[in-house]
Amino acid sequence: MYIAIGVIAIVVIAAVGAALMMGKGSNDKSVKVLLLKKTSSSVAYSPMDQEAVYNGSYSLSRYLYLYTDGVPSTSSSIYKWLSLIYNTTGQQMVTDAGFYPLQTSDLNAMKAQLQNGNNSAVTGAFTESGSTTMTEIAALWAQSFKQSTGITVTIKTPGSGAGIKDFYNKIVDVAQASRAMTTAEKATAAANGITVVEWKVAVDGLAIIVNKDNPVTTLTLSQLEGIFNGTYTNWNQVGGNDKAISLYGRDSASGSYASFKDLVLVNKENYTSAMLQFNTNALIVPEVESAVGAIGYVGIGFAKEASGTSADTTLSEVSSPVARVL
Amino acid sequence: MVALKSKKNNRYMRKIFEGGMTGLLLACALVSVLVLLMVFMFLLGNSLPFLQNNDIWQFLTGTHWLPFGDFPSYGILPLFVGTLMVTLVASLIAIPVGLGATIYLSEIASPQVRNVLKPVIEILAGIPSVIYGLFAALVLSDWIMVIFEPNTRLNALNGALILAVMMIPIMVSVAEEALNSVPRNLREASLALGATRWETLKMTIVPAALPGIVAAIILSMGRAVGETMAVIMATGNSTQFTFNILASMRPLTAALAIDVPEATVGSMAYYSLFAVGLVLFIITFALNLVAEYVLARFKEAYH
Amino acid sequence: MNRRSKEALFFNIFRGCALFVVIVLVVILGYILINGVGKLSIDLFTQNPAPNSHGAMVAGGILSPIVGTLMLMAIVLIIAVPAGVFGAVFLVEYGGNNRISRAWWMIVNNLAGVPSIVWGLVGVGLLVYYLNFGLSLLAAGVTLSFVILPLIMVATKEAIEAIPPSIREASVALGATKWQTVRHHILPYSASGILTGIILSLSRAAGETAPILLTGVAVNAAIPSSLSDSVQALPYYIYLMTQTSDRSAAIPMAYAAALVLIGVIVLLNLGAIILRNRYRQKYRW
Description:
Shape of chain B: flat
Helix content of chain B: over 70%
Shape of chain C: globular
Strand content of chain C: under 5%
CATH architecture of the largest domain in chain B: Orthogonal Bundle
Structural class of chain C: mainly alpha
CATH topology of the largest domain in chain B: MetI-like fold
Largest sheet of chain B: 2 strands, antiparallel
Largest sheet of chain C: 2 strands, antiparallel
Distance between the termini of chain C: 50 Å
Oligomer: heterotrimer
């Protein structure tokens, strides 16, 4: 009897191993990043085009933010944290994670805001909570910060909305968010005695990704809106094959959920309830890879990795606003 | 005289010690009683502000679950259907397979096989739900993609299948106890009258153990209803109201895990989530109550 | 089909069901083993999770999740075990069999079946905000204790009730006080059942994610140096690895952590079985 069980176990494990070997072969899956155009007659731009993201030609550009209580004074550890973020090391880490560093004008504005701070409340370790899109960037910053100053910054990633909430409830010292705080949130913070100071720390272009086998390469903003509010349910309504559209997005605690909604669902409607909702960007990519009719939105850092382009874009590649085919 | 006095002292000391130990035990009991009661009151108390200010009928039958935003909508029907569909489909698989395995384990298997099978069941019962979720998200979903070709790789079927795997160990352990409690004389009488082992099982033992088996089914369904991590990783969590098992759904437990981090304390969304927690609590409470009632009747019949 | 072949048919179906269950376990454990074993190394057990060049927390090892899980189990051991075991002893021995005690045990049984996410919800509202524990190891540990407390009480009650009343009666007839009966007769005889219950509850605590997810975990938490620090834990690390970018690196780490977690749980269960057998030798009735 034991022999029989042993044989069965060996056979099953062998089958499992074989399946894994086969699975490894299909590792050349990837996704395709769509080009967006504002109207059907305008030029289409890609989020991989750094200049287009910077000047707004790519429609889904946004900032990534940190929020603090007041401007930190030079003795505060938060001051040192922001200094790291705004010097070349910190901005290089933004690029390493696949996002875009701040443009010079924004960088100078932020550095100016960092002057003359008066809040020295936090001088040691502190906690930063919020956006999952910024997990990678924040982790790199925190590691470098620990190595250079010895101060521990704990990063929590329950989502931008949750992080902002932790921030104005004074449970954490800094919020990281992939969307701006709303006026209501700022009011609640003020009511709790917090002076909200907004820090732009990086630039992101929300990338629309589709399955590699989807023939569609470009969408207009209104087509995108129609897809995500449930008006279009089949790819043949937007120039593709006869295939049902399946949608992959973020959940409501996410800043990307909110910023995408603001940028695309401009008529204040809700996402279609058929959209699958995920905690992080990274979960959306494998779903889009595996379903032919899939469409999803992710931060540019995640789209770069998923579509197989390197994380570094040099400025010399960006010259014309014409669409880049990848 | 001295001996008598010291005996009296001894008894006095013992009484104090006895009282002290009783008091210590009482303190522990009070701590546990208070904690559990407080938690229950907290759950109830934080649901009230929602239930008092919102239409309960709309809450239970509304088809849009969107607790945040400018125009929130608190209908839990899609969530309830999500829980219902994954639990139902999981039960359709887990009940026959679980009962079959139980009957084999308790009636047919030789002692050596039993020594292998029982630890297998115990290990399956002990695997944490996040590991089941890992398997469902990474492996099971691909298999479902190949076999059923759903539109989305993560769907309710994925959740139902992994829940079935999680339900089976509970069902087997409780049902096995039930089958083992059937008195030997029933079994022997049936065999003596010429019935085959299968006929004995079908017509005597299983009917006799039926209340215990029913309790096993209900308890395992309770596990399925209450499971969070595995379904969150497996079902895709869309809020659509659908009965299509190949579509993505969001069970009640997943809704709590997804929405609680963002809810501001004191907001209507916060209270609505406690109301959802209360609904979950009531469902599992009702299931447990029925299972206990059935088991109590069963124990009465045989003891 | 005659009666014999009918029996053979059905018995084979049942045999198939049992085989299916075994195969499921072998497949799941097999996938975890094959995918996770490649990542087992000294580094895995001695380094904290660290970001790789892209920032994904897939480099380093799982030291802080392992230690975090152990710390959480320790908190549960300190809070839930005494309150649960001694509380249940009191309620069974001194509580009597009246309506109140029956209602109480009904509540405990039901609380044992409450979904762990509901405990997480309560943990957030009660511990993080109302009692101001903040998002901390303490909040996560106490929430876990809420989950485990009813389980330990039920296990203790069943272990005590398995003792035949004759032992209790004999002890009282010989003049022992209530406490002496408990101390010298009830506790030793039920000890194996109680210990098994404690160990199984601790292994359950090691694998719970939902209660700690909302209350005390952080992506880059190191080993906590105080109760108000954030903590990492093996189940949270596994969950995190399934949703981190750089999947070709993250997924094997998830499997490796799953392998370690299952290893911890199997060790605990084995310990429970050994203890149960040894106690059974010592205390027979």
